[in-house]
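Aim 2 progress. For Gluconate 2-dehydrogenase subunit 3 family protein, the working sequence is reproduced below.
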Amino acid sequence: MNRREAISSVALLLGGTVLGAEIFTLTGCTSSPKQINDLFNSNDVLLLDEIAETIIPETDTPGAKATKAGEFMALMVKDCYDKEHQKVFLDGLKNVDDEAKKQYKADFLSLDKDQKKALLTNLDKQQKAYQETKEKEAPPHYFRMMKELTLLGYFTSEIGGSKALTYVEVPGRYDACIPYKKGDPVYLTP
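Predicted structure tokens for this construct:
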């Protein structure tokens, strides 16, 4: 390589570096939420995480947010629910935020723990009344789906299965009479 080729290579390399940094700067500052899948974006997953954390809060064991329950719900709704149930779930997710704005003049993520709990308790009462009066073919209430997915995601995760429940890897023989004191974790065996 002669000096002329070396200088042109260095110029090309530096130009690519400057241009690459400029393009990175322009595309890296977008404020639109990242799309997780066809149905959910990162803001939806944050909202689902907060709903799940309100249902199963952190105590002496990790809460639902630690298990990434929002991502789990987004995946399950996208991959396992039919179009009708997906629509009910997505409309319900929007409704949670709308109810927060209507009752507290703030979105759900901005509410304090007591406000979140009160809002979800009210939705739980609504879903119980709906379940009692709905026709057999009608889809379930969206909050029921959210609760079910939260519980499923939490208790089938490593954190839920090992920290909230007592996990016995090799349970051995079946023993129906195990001493249990109130407050002990429930057993989880494969």
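The mean pLDDT is 86. This observation will guide construct design in the next reporting period.
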